[in-house]
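Pair request: fold both.
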Amino acid sequence: MPDWCFNSLVVRGDAEQLEGLREAVAGPGGALDFERVDPTPPELLGRRPDPDAAMMAALCGAAEAEDPYAWRGAHWGCTRPADPDSIRLEDTDEGVFSFRLSTPWSAPEGIAATLAARFPVLRVELAFFHSARGFAGAIAFEGGAEVSREESEEPARVRALLECEFGTAEATELLDPEERDGTT
């Protein structure tokens, strides 16, 4: 069973471009189907995954892979798609929509980068929190390229990042699940 990484993927820009992105990424896997963004090569499907190779591919950014997990780790940033039950598309304001999703073990940095490259007129922002590691970050893309990145494992900075990127209420839920469950 994986440790889950909680993600917010916010996209900003022209309404027509946003609608094009929304149509391009929706598929059988939900409102944000990673296979629609960057499909796993067909020749890798059906191969037995090697978890060690997948982890090394994700850590090293290996472009070539022998199995689907390793390929996805290198290209998506995570070895499996987002949990379909976790994907929520929110139209927050005009010219802005966001996806909330959970991915196994790591953030979908490669998915965010691919979206930014395919839709360079849009601003793409990925915020993430890996609760098991106490690790959070935020990455922004403009013009198809990464323009900012902040990551931290320091508890006060993690809380500040989460409050900024997810809002105070959601940050509290993510950091203090006992409070949410009423067990404190």
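--- second member of the pair ---
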Amino acid sequence: MTHPLTLQRVTPYQQGAVALGSPAIDADGWIDDLYSAWFDDLVPAVAWTRVLEAETYVLVVEDPDAPTERPFIHWMIWNIPGAADGLPAGLSRVARPPELPGAVQGLNSGGGHGWHGTKPPEGDGVHHYHFQLFALSGRLDHLKPDADIETLVDALKGMTIACAEIVGLYERPDPLAAPPPLSDARGGLDEDDVDHHAPHSPDGEVLQRPSRTTRLDQEG
């Protein structure tokens, strides 16, 4: 039997009181490669509608399709201020991110603080990444940054006013697949653009383009 997700273990006071979304997830529900540990491994932005009674928010991202006994934890962050209506992109991967004073990021299943990019194993099919938001009536100041998911779930019980969920999909890319064609929106190639229109910095410096093959030797 699959171990339940955090959202399935917490009963809120209200139903349907908050909406959740992320620009990292497209209209068809797929998470962009930019947020995968196979590629750029960027930290996604998350947005929600505010709950007036909330003193703080908690966000938990879990993958129940991971080949582990329990869902793989990709993100745990609590004590997000009640006045917030989202998390900025690129939040620092530290226990107490300076961009969000007062908030605490717990340990993900990879052993680090903050977002752990999507990284399903080869041949494991599509994985579902559950972004779960909880609006709380108080703060979780008693939790230390190394608190585990069980301790967090216990704290959520009886304090959750409302909750919401959005699910993003991701599958390990095929290392043998042909790269996608360049978009017309990128413009034509310059005569001296020997790197075939690789990404550039604002100063014109050529940047390394992530490859679908260079990082596939890592563990899922």
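Observation on the second member. Helices lie at 149-156.
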